């Protein structure tokens, strides 16, 4: 009987174009849109080499050796162009360089706008001037001390990364998107309840007249829905990773586990709404879409700042929003080296799944109806 | 007794849908449940099938109490509900196979049963069609095939011909009789008296959840005082002659519309002969003339004072 119901449910659901659109095509289309819209987000915070025009009016080998250090290596700070003063002015005016360093007895910097690159140039020159002045003073007073001095910068803070991953803001949007896709699985849950509750559909009435335990039929049928949702989610992940080249880190096993848990919560959410809410299917569908989109919004799918606002102003909402729990589980998995935050999210999702499924069971187990 | 319901009471708030309804269906008969819309036919069926709760009464099927988990009873019951209940995503064959599979796990046996059911309802040429491609009549036939494919001993059909074209309706009615000949006991609900009169061996007329008459169609017609209805095509009849006609013995009402005079009589022998004699004696020129026996609608009308289709 399991094979019979399972196989036919697969057929029915896979041929349901509306269902497949909302649960698979729509998330993939949205992911494509996100990729186009947020493609440059990760690059805005990255550092590029600063182009500088160097005008040497007097030789200064000491300064030039320092500059050489700044332009060498795997991650150079500056890219120098040794030019004449008029050429330097042209390059600056055209925006090809961030500033002009003029080397004479004393160094000077000319910029024509303010910005991070110009600030770095200023700090560099200030620090050089400060160090050479200090060294000059010490050399004048006691050259021996200067010989013994260690010019390595003293750092009073220690860098301890919370993550092994590189920061990528757009990932947060994709996490919320995956969470939304899992919760669109709620349509499957709604369908399953509609198919087993004789007071909700004529097909369910027919099924209730068959010599078959209705909870078994419900379970077999729901397993078919769950299987399809998992396959759809795997296809979405494959699309994100292989086509859109989204890097979800190296914990792919846990990511898949999280999708399994999220899909379970999503389907049980649909069953919960279908069994608890009175009204026709359109009302329930509207409610499912509304609740999922609202949850996704609060989880930062449309504006990342909303997630932070919720964290600051109404932190309890983070835990009451299952879409956020799921998105945050992915986030925690990728960004944090410890699993505490991840486990809290997964536990929250499982609690929701138990509450949704338990409530659905209490309604679905009913064997007779007041009316059909 | 295949089916026995005693003293069923079902209330929806203040509305009494079934008012101490009792019925018995014997093995091998086609039992008709006739009543206007809202009379309680479908509610009675849903109670019998243990789909809905009822406030009072008990139901036995095949001599055993009916319950939602009486799976050994349910496997011998076939149900064709009023509304078409099939999957639009499955073909005709797949739909019948799916519902049959809920009763018959063995694939080989099922294959044969499904083929037989599809042939039986005349959908052999449509087996790969999806329901959306079928006309209303064909869809009804598919609905029937889904309910009977597992060869049940008791088949309950709840208004299976609503909104069906005459050709499909005849096919459905012939099919029901054939199923009965093959050994199935049938419970057939309808508000179409002609259908019930045509195929049912025993009929119960219900109204407002109560049984108001029960028996064979002849038994039911004997219960009322109304005799035959005589219709005469006349070419010129005066008001005075119509009045005289109405005053003849055993004539209850006379109405005239255009050239047609409709005469309703009480039960009596030779009513037609007496009417003809009167027409001749009055030298009334006439054309066609025919007489009809009372219908179940007349039975319903006399008992309740309203038309069956009101």
Structural class of chain B: alpha/beta
CATH H-level superfamily of the largest domain in chain B: P-loop containing nucleotide triphosphate hydrolases
**Spatial order of the strands forming the largest sheet of chain B:** 6-7-8-3-9-10
Portion in strands of chain B: 25-35%
- In total, the number of strands of chain B is 14
What is the annotated CATH architecture of the largest domain in chain B?
A: 3-Layer(aba) Sandwich
Strand content of chain A: 5-15%
Write down the domain tally of chain A: 2
Low-confidence stretches of chain B: none
Q: Give a count of the beta strands of chain A, DSSP E runs of length 2 or more.
A: 4
The side-by-side strand order for the widest beta sheet of chain A comes to: 2-1-3-4
- Radius of gyration based on Cα positions of chain B: 23 Å
Judged by helices, strands and strand pairing, the structural class of chain A is: mainly alpha
Instruction: Determine the fraction of residues in helical runs of chain B and give it as a percent range.
Output: 25-40%
What does this structure look like?
The complex is a heterodimer of chains A (372) and B (310). Chain A is mostly helical. The longest helix of chain A is centred in the middle third of the chain and has 30 residues, at 214-243. Chain A has helices at 2-14, 17-38, 61-71, 85-93, 116-141, 143-148, 169-184, 186-196, 202-208, 214-243, 252-276, 281-298, 304-313, 316-320, 322-335, 340-364; strands at residues 50-56, 78-82, 99-103, 107-110. Chain A folds into 2 domains: 2-40 and 176-366; 50-148, Periplasmic binding protein-like II (D-Maltodextrin-Binding Protein, domain 2, 3-Layer(aba) Sandwich), CATH 3.40.190. In chain A, strands 2-1-3-4 form a 4-stranded mixed β-sheet, with helices on both faces. Chain B has 310 residues and is of the alpha/beta class. Chain B folds into 2 domains: 3-221, P-loop containing nucleotide triphosphate hydrolases (Rossmann fold), CATH 3.40.50; 226-293, Alpha-Beta Plaits. Chain B is built from 11 helices and 14 strands. Chain B has helices at residues 41-48, 71-74, 92-101, 107-120, 136-148, 166-181, 193-199, 217-222, 239-246, 271-281, 296-304; strands at 3-12, 15-25, 30-34, 56-61, 64-65, 77-80, 154-158, 185-190, 202-207, 210-215, 226-234, 251-257, 260-266, 286-292. In chain B, the strands form 3 sheets. A 6-stranded mixed β-sheet of chain B has the order 6-7-8-3-9-10, with helices on both faces. A 4-stranded antiparallel β-sheet of chain B has the order 2-1-4-5, covered by helices on one side. In chain B, strands 12-13-11-14 form a 4-stranded antiparallel β-sheet, sandwiched between helices. In chain B, helix 3 crosses helix 4 (107-120). The longest helix of chain B is centred in the middle third of the chain and has 16 residues, at 166-181. Chain B is elongated, with a radius of gyration of 23 Å. The model of chain B has no long low-confidence stretch (mean pLDDT 90). Chains A and B meet through helix 1 and helix 9 of A and helix 2 and helix 3 of B.
């Amino acid at each position: 009987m399991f094979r019979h119901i399972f196989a036919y449910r697969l057929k029915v659901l896979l041929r349901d174009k509306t269902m497949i659109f909302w649960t698979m095509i729509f998330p993939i289309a949205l992911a494509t849109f996100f990729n186009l819209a947020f493609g440059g987000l990760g690059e805005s915070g990255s550092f590029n080499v600063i182009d500088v025009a160097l005008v040497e009016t007097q030789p200064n080998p000491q300064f030039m050796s320092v500059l050489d250090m700044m332009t060498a290596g795997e991650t150079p700070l500056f890219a120098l162009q040794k030019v004449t003063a008029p050429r330097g002015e042209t390059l600056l005016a055209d925006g090809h360089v961030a500033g002009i360093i003029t080397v004479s007895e004393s160094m000077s910097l000319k910029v024509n706008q303010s910005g991070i690159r110009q600030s770095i140039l200023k700090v560099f020159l200030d620090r050089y001037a400060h160090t050479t002045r200090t060294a000059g003073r010490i050399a004048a007073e006691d050259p021996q001390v200067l010989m013994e001095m260690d010019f390595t910068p003293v750092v009073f803070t220690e860098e301890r990364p919370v993550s092994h991953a590189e920061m990528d803001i757009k990932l947060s949007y994709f996490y919320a998107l995956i969470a939304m896709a899992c919760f669109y699985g709620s349509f499957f849950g709604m369908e399953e309840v509609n198919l087993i509750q004789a007071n909700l559909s004529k097909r369910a009435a027919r099924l209730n007249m068959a010599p078959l335990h209705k909870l078994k039929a419900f379970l077999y049928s729901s397993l078919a829905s769950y299987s399809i949702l998992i396959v759809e989610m795997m296809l979405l992940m494959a699309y994100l990773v292989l086509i859109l080249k989204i890097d979800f880190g190296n914990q792919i096993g846990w990511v898949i586990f999280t999708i399994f848990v999220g899909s379970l919560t999503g389907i049980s959410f649909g069953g919960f709404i279908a069994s608890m809410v009175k009204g026709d299917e359109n009302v329930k569908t509207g409610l499912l879409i509304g609740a999922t989109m609202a949850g996704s919004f609060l989880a930062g799918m449309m504006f990342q700042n909303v997630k932070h606002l919720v964290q600051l102003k109404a932190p309890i909402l983070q835990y009451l929003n299952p879409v956020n729990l799921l998105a945050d589980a992915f986030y925690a998995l990728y960004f944090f080296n410890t699993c505490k935050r991840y486990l809290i999210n997964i536990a929250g999702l499982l609690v929701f799944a138990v509450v949704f499924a338990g409530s659905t069971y209490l309604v679905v187990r009913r064997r007779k109806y007041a009316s059909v | 007794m295949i089916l026995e319901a005693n003293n069923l009471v079902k209330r929806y708030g203040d509305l009494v849908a079934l008012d101490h309804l009792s019925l018995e269906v014997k093995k091998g008969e086609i039992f008709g449940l006739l009543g206007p819309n809202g009379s309680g036919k479908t509610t009675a069926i849903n109670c019998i099938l243990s789909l809905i709760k009822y406030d009072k009464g008990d139901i036995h099927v095949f001599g055993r109490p009916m319950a939602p988990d009486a799976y050994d009873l349910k496997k011998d019951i076939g149900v064709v509900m009023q509304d078409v209940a099939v999957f639009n995503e499955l073909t005709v064959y797949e739909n019948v196979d799916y519902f049959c599979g809920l009763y018959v796990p063995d694939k080989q046996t099922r294959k044969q049963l499904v083929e037989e059911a599809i042939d039986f309802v005349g959908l052999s040429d449509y087996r790969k069609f999806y329901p959306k491609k079928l006309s209303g009549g064909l869809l009804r036939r598919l609905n029937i095939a889904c309910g009977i494919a597992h060869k049940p001993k008791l088949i309950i059909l709840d208004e299976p011909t609503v909104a069906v074209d005459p050709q499909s309706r005849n096919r459905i009615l012939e099919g029901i009789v054939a199923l009965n000949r093959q050994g199935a006991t049938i419970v057939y609900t309808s508000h179409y008296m002609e259908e019930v009169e045509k195929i049912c061996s025993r009929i119960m007329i219900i109204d407002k959840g109560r049984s108001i008459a029960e028996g064979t169609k002849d038994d039911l017609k004997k219960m009322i005082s109304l005799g035959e209805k005589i219709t005469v095509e006349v070419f010129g009849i005066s008001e005075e002659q119509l009045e005289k006609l109405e005053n003849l013995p055993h004539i209850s009402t006379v109405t005239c519309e255009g050239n047609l005079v409709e005469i309703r009589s009480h039960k009596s022998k030779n009513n037609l002969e007496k009417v003809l004699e009167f027409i001749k004696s009055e030298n009334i020129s006439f054309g066609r003339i025919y007489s009809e026996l009372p219908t179940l609608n007349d039975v319903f009308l006399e008992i309740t004072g309203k038309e069956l289709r009101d």
